[in-house]
């Protein structure tokens, strides 16, 4: 199995993030760069006050060090794409950069192996936050707080033509299904497999992987019949296989597949002052159009929320 990325990747809150926050561009930059009317410049003059109000709420350690550490478990396109040992891209990466710009700090990205390592690291305070997005479920809310900014669904990536006729989770008894280790899909498919056995059908052969590319390779190489995961990353990866050997397609889209509404978002330590601060910062990015612009850039318009939320998940998977 391909080993997970372990490199530490750093990126500053750069001019790119500043450009993303163009409605919040300081007065002097707006007036000099664009030559717009004095009224437009006057409107933009209000925006730095929003920055300052949020920066005053930064925890003392972050304010003192001038940086935050965002943890991830490798590429999760199109939300997070590891480009090299020193840079990340994707919707979540750009949103995290925008948050760092508002807070006036640098951001360091660090990769670990698996979701459990992220949750443990956040709970212990080793990392400032994880932008994920990570699935919000009540049992996870016991140890971390979620600032949700997307609504996801779960589907399958299967070989072109769907030779095993997987149209929903109900078709997976006796099938070989790949999942990401520690994720909600692993829990749901294992619960369903137990139901297969109770009904006298063969169980699901659940294959657990630490990264999406390896899980998808198992389907392309016919070692698994399908990969059960979040819709947006699956759509991204499936599109990349078009016209290549081992081409994939999506299956079970919109079928529910054992889940209710799936909220996903960033996580911070439970009860931390970072929770309300990040929520208000995300509200700022929603209101000024940065959030929608970034999400649409990465073709994630199907997963937009009207407003960010705090611990939105209220019920367990169905």
Give an overview in words.
- The chain has 318 residues and is of the alpha+beta class.
- It contains 13 helices and 14 strands.
- It has helices spanning 15-20, 27-34, 38-44, 47-55, 60-65, 91-103, 115-124, 138-141, 184-198, 212-220, 231-240, 274-287, 290-297, and strands at 8-11, 67-72, 81-84, 87-89, 106-111, 130-135, 144-152, 154-159, 176-180, 205-209, 226-230, 248-251, 262-269, 304-310.
- The strands form four sheets. A five-stranded mixed beta sheet has the order 10-9-11-8-12, sandwiched between helices. Strands 6-13-7-14 form a four-stranded antiparallel beta sheet. It has a three-stranded mixed beta sheet with strand order 1-5-2.
- Strand 9, helix 9 and strand 10 form a beta-alpha-beta unit.
- Helix 2 runs antiparallel to helix 3.
- The longest helix is centred in the middle third of the chain and has 15 residues, at 184-198.
- The radius of gyration is 21 Å and the shape is elongated.
- 43% of the residues are buried.
- Mean pLDDT is 84; it is low at 1-46.
